[in-house]
Amino acid sequence: MTDKLVIVLYFVVMLGAGYAGMRRSRDAEDFTVAGRRLGPFMYTSAMSTVVLGGASTVGGVSLGYQYGVSGMALVLALACGITAIGLLMSKKLLRAGIYTVPDLIGRRFGISARHLASVIVVFYSLMVGVSQIVAIGTVLNVVFGLSPTVAALAGWAVITVYSVAGGMWSITLTDVIQFVIKTVGIFVILLPLSLHRAGGFGHMQARLPHSFFSPVGIGVGTILAYFLLFFFGFMIDQGNWQRLFTARSEKVAFYGSIASGVYCALYGLAGALIGTGARVILPTLANPDNAYAELARKVLPVGIFGLVIAAALAATMSCASGLLIGASTVLTNDVYRPLRGERAVSVRANRIALGAVCVAALLVSFASGSVVGTVTVAADLLAAALFVPAMGALFWSRASRTAAVASMVAGAAGCVVFMVVDGLYANEPVMYGGLASLVVFLAVGALMPAGSRTDLAPAPVQPASVASE
């Protein structure tokens, strides 16, 4: 009962943070990017939490259970992507007043490219958000004994209420709380206790194969696939970009993204080590994905177990809320605004869009059997179709509108073709789709006459900072 009370209290705190964020959200810029006013700690916390979702926490421990320390490869790829955003992109994006990935592509390559990019980004953000809602339902099902549908509905309701109430301010405040819970739950509690119960490194090395302590034990091919999919994909993930634009200065965005990348890499290592310890403590688990919850139940006392489960919920909820507001911001900024004009984008319009996205996510989550495959397709399409034109918009002066649209189509088509040929979960789709996108982008860009090349348009006056109507 104590564990359940801890989790219920966590939900109450999240709703309270949503109310506090609502009081701060006075215009659309407050709602979508927290008024661009976050300092170092809040920015780094928010940027870190969007990385460390269910896949990085529960999934990272599962990979550690199966492969040992090399199981951190997935989270390491994400951490490198976050660091690259700060190092390579933060100054250019902030100076341009960019809000979204389609915003960048649209300003450089026109409305057709913007709409095509919007479809891909919304699909990706929505589907990955759905996977987080399903993960929340799974955790609540284990702890409270609820049916999977009711459990997913409960977690979804909390996310929806605090997100719609205050937008990015609410999400940022919950991110800070969730960041603290995750840090304490993983680094202070579960990591040292799991290593202690496993008998320390010496005993773990004696009990497990040598590959569990190799940096490439998971396989070089798998590490390469993670890098291609998650490093490049994360550099153009709308949830990450939206957190980037909350920084109050270029300096905060630059150094905060690097600090976040370092933190996330350490988090990935901690998760892999926890999973390695779980392999010694619980060697016969039928499902490696249960390693996090089962290990916590095994080694933690009542109350502390609830806190560690809350850490898993925190990771998943922060990732889900960031992705869902990312999808809704693209809808208002890149679809609704060009149709209705600047003044139409109010806090009310953003709340309606976010509420609609949350409802859509819930409905799709009920078809959970197809979610994993859909997320894989979405992530492959994002990396294969949008990475090259987005980088070209920022860094290649010879890029043209025709090259950008052709590149997106070629990347998406190549990705889908190799999914059919090699299978949904193969490494080839994102590799060959991305290669097709790059070749077409460079070839068409080089062939187009100089007059067809475009420059990055300046930010519109008072971007998305219209008061609530």
TrEMBL record:
Keyword Transmembrane helix applies: yes
Gene Ontology cellular-component annotations: plasma membrane
Family assignment from sequence similarity: Belongs to the sodium:solute symporter (SSF) (TC 2.A.21) family.
Pfam families per the UniProt record, alphabetical: SSF
Source species of the chain: Actinoallomurus iriomotensis
Gene3D superfamilies to which the protein is assigned, alphabetical: Sodium/glucose cotransporter
Membrane topology type: Multi-pass membrane protein
Name of this chain's protein: 3-guanidinopropionate transporter
Primary location group: membrane
Location(s), subcellular: Membrane
